[in-house]
Amino acid sequence: QQQVKQSPQSLIVQKGGISIINCAYENTAFDYFPWYQQFPGKGPALLIAIRPDVSEKKEGRFTISFNKSAKQFSLHIMDSQPGDSATYFCAASAPTRYALNFGKGTSLLVTP
Amino acid sequence: DSGVTQTPKHLITATGQRVTLRCSPRSGDLSVYWYQQSLDQGLQFLIQYYNGEERAKGNILERFSAQQFPDLHSELNLSSLELGDSALYFCASSTSLADTQYFGPGTRLTVL
Lengths: 112, 112
Fold this sequence. Notes:
The complex is a heterodimer. In chain A, the strands form two sheets. In chain A, strands 2, 4, 5, 9, 10 and 11 form a six-stranded mixed beta sheet that branches. In chain A, strands 1-3-8-7-6 form a five-stranded antiparallel beta sheet, with no helix packed on it. By secondary structure, chain A is an all-beta fold. In chain A, 0% of the residues lie in helices and 58% in strands.
């Protein structure tokens, strides 16, 4: 059972555009929501993470928006660049059980 | 480079065989997680160790086992291999239980 649902499965954005990836969860015990970026042949790398006490977190061109009541969170990539082309995974974990529950991933292609 | 190392990088074996995947966590990290990544199931948590003790289990088959040694490296043992076990296996480590998980480069297992 997929505890975190991610959409879209794939995304094509022009250079300079905004990439938006959405995730939804059901387990209200989740209290940590990271986003990981994965390039082909590499392991996932932490991009940015948020906890539910804030509704938004920004790091450079990357922003997480968090809606606790809707149980949704999203990743916005501003001024998308070809180097951002990768697979992005949202995840969630609960206190006392720290294993990450991953979404199925979004393959992002940023065209020149 | 996350600082997590995994060996071997690639492994090709036959059905029914047994293999061992090795993970060395980042220096100072006490917690080790194993994840399986396949096209149909995505990234799935298998098992977690903390300072030598098993901490949590996920979707790990009975044919699979793991351990964490006193020097904190971990091994994942896969036995009676089936075609469906072909996947990428990632190890992640964190300083303590609630900290960021850093992923290794993975071991690609192919079962023929």
